[in-house]
Design the sequence.
């Protein structure tokens, strides 16, 4: 089925100050599971922590050494002015060389830890995507029928990316911020306990102001996210149904709806961004308060001779750096919440129930002839809602079996049971005398070829799409299959012929041409049993005749199950099964069923009269 690719629902971007983040339902449990998943990287993470801590400590020591150089320069200048000595440039030079070495070492450590952490996060993303992709192949069909495709796509794209980015930033930033705060406080205490206490007084002021801004902006950020989701949905619907909107002259109505939502988005976005933008001025105001406090108290202590000039310079540097790691810790908290929420969604998917991929008593049946037996088959998607009650049928090798009946009769359900997309509640389905539950699912499905109403072709050349039926087929075999499917002639008229590139929707060829390609693909696969589900329902009469001829070639010598609503297409079937409410109510060939003048005859005559 050439499916429309829908934008994954939701999304995770960066989180600025005040930005609300999706939170995990079980933060501790998810983080524990994530740490277990990261077990193979524990040595690398240890070195990341070590190098990050070393890089931070070296950086924190810098202002202290710079202060020592400033003190040495100031004292030397005073001695020179009083005529009692001179400036000791050699000592200042030594201090600056040590400072240069420390900054170089800090940069090297920061580079190494960044390189290791990036490697860890990308390997984690690689492993998660691989695990999710493999998981998809083991999932039962019921999961995808009851869940949105966009949600699965969101987990494999948005959630994995969010996890990788948050992991890469949060661990390093957490270590750096904690080491910076602890290191700065420790060094400031060694220089002056009183000035350190004065500096720490600004922390509660900073925290109170930040909390006020966050509390005011939170509701506007939530409104912005909701409005953004609504406007995205409206744009997607408008573009996907643009021809319908024009046909009904609803352009202005859609525009009015868009403008209303856009107005709400503008109001909420303006207020949220304005309030969020106040964070930097608030933090700068608090930092400036710290500078003023350090300058006044430092001048008083320097006059009293209890602190050196260089220490005041160092204190100013530390005050400048002090508020930054505190705000970073708030951002780390957001990133950890976002990471846990993304990880929780990923692990929820990875923990979903899987199909049994192998059977302990699996059989390796070679040369399947295509004899199929349904015996007292009973099935319900839910145990309390049975849709197939007591299905019985014997199909001989090479027979064409048509399954007809009203919508909801259970036609497609029988095909899903035959291919073990679902397992029956009771009874048995056998192929050549072997119960299908004794096959490994992949071995069982290897015996089936399918041509469906919804043609599935992927972005690639026509040659590649036909070869999908048998990947080791030669070009000559692909062309032979296309000729047998009556597709060769139209393929050669296309620009590029067999090497023409189909787009993502395969919309650069017609619906009938797509159907002929899927028949060629099934012919190339050469499976003993065929399933044809409404393969001609969406094409014109002339193309239908062409497809019918191709299908006749395809079905020759194979057991075929044909689901059809257009009864004129299955008049030549060896066996017609008429289903209603999950049971076979009539069976036989076309002439026999017409003579019975029952449900099938009523269906056929109603279609014939409608056609006339």
Sequence:
């Amino acid at each position: 089925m050439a499916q429309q690719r829908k934008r994954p629902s939701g999304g995770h971007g960066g989180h600025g100050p005040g930005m609300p983040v999706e939170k995990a339902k079980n933060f501790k449990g998810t983080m524990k599971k994530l740490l277990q998943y990261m077990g193979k990287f524990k040595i690398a993470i240890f070195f990341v922590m070590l190098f990050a801590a070393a890089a931070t400590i070296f950086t924190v020591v810098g202002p202290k050494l710079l202060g020592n150089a400033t003190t040495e320069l100031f004292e030397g200048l005073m001695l020179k002015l009083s005529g009692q000595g001179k400036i000791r440039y050699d000592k200042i030079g030594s201090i600056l060389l040590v400072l240069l070495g420390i900054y170089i070492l800090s940069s090297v450590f920061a580079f190494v830890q960044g390189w290791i952490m990036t490697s860890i996060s990308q390997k984690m993303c690689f492993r998660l995507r691989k695990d999710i992709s493999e998981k998809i192949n083991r999932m039962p069909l019921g999961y995808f029928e009851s869940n949105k495709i966009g949600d699965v796509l969101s987990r494999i794209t948005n959630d994995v990316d969010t996890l990788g980015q948050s992991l890469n930033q949060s661990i390093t930033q957490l270590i750096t911020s904690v080491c910076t705060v602890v290191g700065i406080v420790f060094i400031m205490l060694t220089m002056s306990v009183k000035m350190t206490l004065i500096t720490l007084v600004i922390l509660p002021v900073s925290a109170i102001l930040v909390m006020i801004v966050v509390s005011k902006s939170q509701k506007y950020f939530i409104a912005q996210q909701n409005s953004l989701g609504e406007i995205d949905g409206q744009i997607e619907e408008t573009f996907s149904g643009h021809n319908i909107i024009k046909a009904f002259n609803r352009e202005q109505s859609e525009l009015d709806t868009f403008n209303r939502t856009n107005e709400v988005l503008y109001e909420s976005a303006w207020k949220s961004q304005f309030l969020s933008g106040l964070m930097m001025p608030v933090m700068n105001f608090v930092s400036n308060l710290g500078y003023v406090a350090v300058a006044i108290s430092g001048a008083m202590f320097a006059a009293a001779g209890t602190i050196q000039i260089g220490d005041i310079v160092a204190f100013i540097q530390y005050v400048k750096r002090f508020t930054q790691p505190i705000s970073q810790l708030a951002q780390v908290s957001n990133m950890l919440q976002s990471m846990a929420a993304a990880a929780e969604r990923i692990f929820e998917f990875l923990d979903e129930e899987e199909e049994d991929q192998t059977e302990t008593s699996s059989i390796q049946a070679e040369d399947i002839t295509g004899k199929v037996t349904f015996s007292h088959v009973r099935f319900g998607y839910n145990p309390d809602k049975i849709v197939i009650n007591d299905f019985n049928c014997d199909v001989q090798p090479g027979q064409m079996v048509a399954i007809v009946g009203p919508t909801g009769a259970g036609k497609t359900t029988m095909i899903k049971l035959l291919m073990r997309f679902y397992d029956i509640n009771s009874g048995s389905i056998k192929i050549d005398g072997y119960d299908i539950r004794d096959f490994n699912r992949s071995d069982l499905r290897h015996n089936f070829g399918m041509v469906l109403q919804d043609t599935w072709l992927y972005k690639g050349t026509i040659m590649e799409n036909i070869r999908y039926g048998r990947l080791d087929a030669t070009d000559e075999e692909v062309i032979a299959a296309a000729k047998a499917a009556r597709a060769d002639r139209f393929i050669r008229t296309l620009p590029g012929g067999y090497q023409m590139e189909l787009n993502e929707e395969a919309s650069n060829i017609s619906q009938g041409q797509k159907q002929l390609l899927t028949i060629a693909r099934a012919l190339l696969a050469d499976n003993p049993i065929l399933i044809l589900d409404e393969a001609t329902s969406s094409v014109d009469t002339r193309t239908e005749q062409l497809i019918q001829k191709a299908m006749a070639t395809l079905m020759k010598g194979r057991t075929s199950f044909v689901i059809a609503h257009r009864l004129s297409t299955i008049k030549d079937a060896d066996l017609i099964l008429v289903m209603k409410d999950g049971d076979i109510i009539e069976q036989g060939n076309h002439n026999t069923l017409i003579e019975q003048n029952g449900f099938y005859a009523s269906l056929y005559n109603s279609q014939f009269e409608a056609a006339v």
Observations:
- DSSP finds 20 helices and twelve strands in the chain.
